[in-house]
Specification:
By secondary structure, the protein is mostly beta strands. The chain is built from two helices and 30 strands. The longest helix is centred in the first third of the chain and has 19 residues. The chain is globular.
Length: 385
């Protein structure tokens, strides 16, 4: 997609979309949304995908009389103009799926051009699990708008805990292809797959470092489950924790690759700890809540996790370098599990009641949005960054 930018004067903006007079608004995080208008002809798939992803971004509202205009013909030139700025997309496509991708790309371009520092995530993919039986759980993926769902594995065995590599193509997960849990890497585009190692007593929780050279992984071949780091080139491993009376799980990396957040039940209740990779020293991160599980680190340094409080599960999110003291509840108490940050560090996906939701973590942000309504037992979502 070619996008041409032209600055007209001021930095504010309006916006038009669709042959029907719709409207979108640009908004600062935590502020009232601003109005925009959309007038795009052509492909209905392009139109609906552009509209939905602009709404999901949290910056725009669709309605009449906007202050930004998005106009043109899908598959030709589409321009967003307003508030002293203009950008144009010229992207052709051959089918409905291509039209939707073009709509997603222009939605991201509009967010990044007209919002106050926002980052688009419409083209990122979300992997998740559909549990079909006691020993059968397959991996699927789709885009944040819920469309273009695709099944990744078809093994008739359990596949759980997906986490994306930074390249957005490789997915790490725990599978049971060989009668015990082992860690796998699969390229979702080529379907090439490999096992990271046939370790005694299995392996789980593999998560790739930001530079893609290492994975954090849980191994128990020396006893109880402990946190290790594996160099992917040499397959050499380095032990990070030594907790003979506890079990570790769910590792994830800090954006700079210097720390790993993980879960440990050293206190008999699962809590989140932070390991400094260089020194291999860990410190406890959470103390509020009976259980705290499944941490995930955003690119902007925010940490989120599932927390069991007063008998119900919610999602907590802390600020960069703020520690647990800066954390606040970003969902209502219920059955929320498995949060994973979007690329903007504002939204996340999480599972609740067999469904996947997009959650806006701003204090006065949008209500959680269910991604799709396909029948299934959907869980373990993971957002590519």
């Amino acid at each position: 997609m070619q996008i041409k930018k032209m600055f007209i004067g001021s930095l504010t903006m309006a916006f038009v979309f669709s042959a029907m007079a719709l409207q979108v608004d640009v908004v600062k995080q935590g502020a009232a949304k601003v109005t925009v208008t959309l007038q795009v002809s052509g492909s209905p798939d392009y139109q609906k995908c552009l509209k939905r992803n602009l709404e999901l971004s949290g910056w725009f509202r669709i309605g009449p009389s906007g202050s930004i205009t998005v106009s043109g013909a899908a598959g030709g030139a589409v321009t967003a103009t307003g508030r002293g700025k203009s950008i144009t997309s010229r992207e052709s496509f051959g089918d409905a799926a291509g039209a939707r991708m073009a709509g997603r790309r222009f939605a991201d371009a509009i967010v990044e051009a007209f919002s106050d520092g926002g980052k688009g995530f419409a083209t990122k993919r979300i992997a998740y699990v559909n549990r079909k039986g006691a020993d059968n759980a397959e991996l699927y993926m789709c885009y944040p708008d819920g469309w273009d769902m695709r099944q990744i594995t078809s093994d008739g065995r359990a596949a759980i805990g997906p986490r994306w590599a930074a390249n957005g193509h490789d997915l790490y997960y725990t599978g049971f292809l060989h009668e015990k849990q082992l860690s796998y890497r699969i390229n979702v585009d080529t379907e090439a797959r490999e096992c990271l190692g046939f370790f005694k007593n299995g392996a789980s929780g593999a998560a790739a470092s930001p530079d893609g050279r290492s994975v954090a992984i849980i191994l128990s071949y020396q006893g109880n489950p402990e946190l290790y780091v594996m160099d992917l080139a040499s397959r050499k491993i380095q032990r990070m924790t030594k907790t003979p009376a506890a079990a570790e799980s769910s590792p994830c990396w800090s954006p700079d690759g210097r720390k790993i957040a993980y879960v440990s039940d050293q206190t008999r209740n699962p809590q989140i700890y932070i390991c400094d990779v260089a020194s291999r020293q860990s410190t406890r991160y959470t103390s509020k809540g009976r259980q705290n599980t499944h941490p995930d680190w955003a690119k902007n340094g925010r940490l989120c996790w599932s927390s069991l409080q007063a008998g119900q599960w919610c999602i907590m999110a802390s600020e960069p370098n703020g520690g647990e003291a800066s954390a606040r509840m970003v969902t209502q108490p219920g059955t929320w599990q498995d949060p994973s940050w979007a690329a903007d560090g504002r939204h996340l996906v999480a599972s609740r009641d067999k469904a996947i939701f997009l959650v806006d973590t701003e204090p006065d942000g949008d209500k959680p949005v269910q991604l799709f309504y396909n029948k299934g037992n959907w869980m373990n979502p993971a957002f590519s960054k």
